[in-house]
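DATA SHEET
Item: assembly model
Revision: 1
Owner: S.N.
Input lines:
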Amino acid sequence: MKKELGAKNLLCPVPVTLVGAHVNGRPNFITIAFVGVLDYSHVSVASGKNHYTNAGIKENGTFSVNIPATRQVKETDYCGIVSGKKADKSAVFETFYGKLESAPMIAECPLNMACRLVQTLDMPRHDVFIGEIVETYCDEEVLADGGVDFEKVDPILFIIYGSDYWRFGKAFARGWSVGKDLMK
Amino acid sequence: MKKELGAKNLLCPVPVTLVGAHVNGRPNFITIAFVGVLDYSHVSVASGKNHYTNAGIKENGTFSVNIPATRQVKETDYCGIVSGKKADKSAVFETFYGKLESAPMIAECPLNMACRLVQTLDMPRHDVFIGEIVETYCDEEVLADGGVDFEKVDPILFIIYGSDYWRFGKAFARGWSVGKDLMK
């Protein structure tokens, strides 16, 4: 039996990210889980219009998407609680730069993507920043067989309307394979 | 030590969805993991330009996003392997309709969102469909304390560039809480 919940976005779980940008000339990081995969080289990041970060992304046309590990959950949560308007978050993490000089990235996060802003969607309460990934950086410790091992990345997941952080689970089936049983 | 991987989209894990649409007047379902949360009522779904589904979404201006459970992994994988051009996928699942008459939804999936197409982003190899969620449907069995219990939903997760399907994990920390330790 189906129940109507209203127009609720339950496209979950989503990975929790830390979005980096220069704001007023200083690195700032904000916790964002309203994110999306547009294709192999483009991401979307939605930030409430009242957030301190947005002006910096618009001004510089660059930002970073950092994937924190569960061991960084305190720092990750902190960057979502405290606004850059009130606190200098530039020292919460060790910052590094890659190919984009105004896209600060977080050394402690196992994965980092430096992005160039290519479009901004104007939603009622959010700016949705569409970024072209210019370069992806990762810790050598999370590589295995030439690819990234997400069990080693140990990302933090989130459920919209929820208030918990969740762990990633285990692989249980092969794609482009397990469904072949249904082919006639 | 950071390693450069090229411009790789590693915004992972993402939830695996089944996107429903009417194509040539018949329900069709395609497996899509290139998805995103834009805000509390908008989603993005990116479908390769050569896919059978795209014309139907453009023609009707509607689609559905269904969240399959791990027990539907065979059917989910099948809908990603086999094109609607070659096979009638309308009978893979039991179909139902909600507020949008051309947005077929999957009864077996614990969560379903009926969406109205509001914008299409033209990426090099994908159409990115932006949908406004009109109504969300869920199985009563996955409700708890008035909200949706994602351990009961038991969604399927995916890693871009990978080929495995993954399980969701366990809650391990509270949001807007665990980071307070770092506030001075």
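QC remark: The helical segments of chain A are 53-60, 73-81, 150-153.
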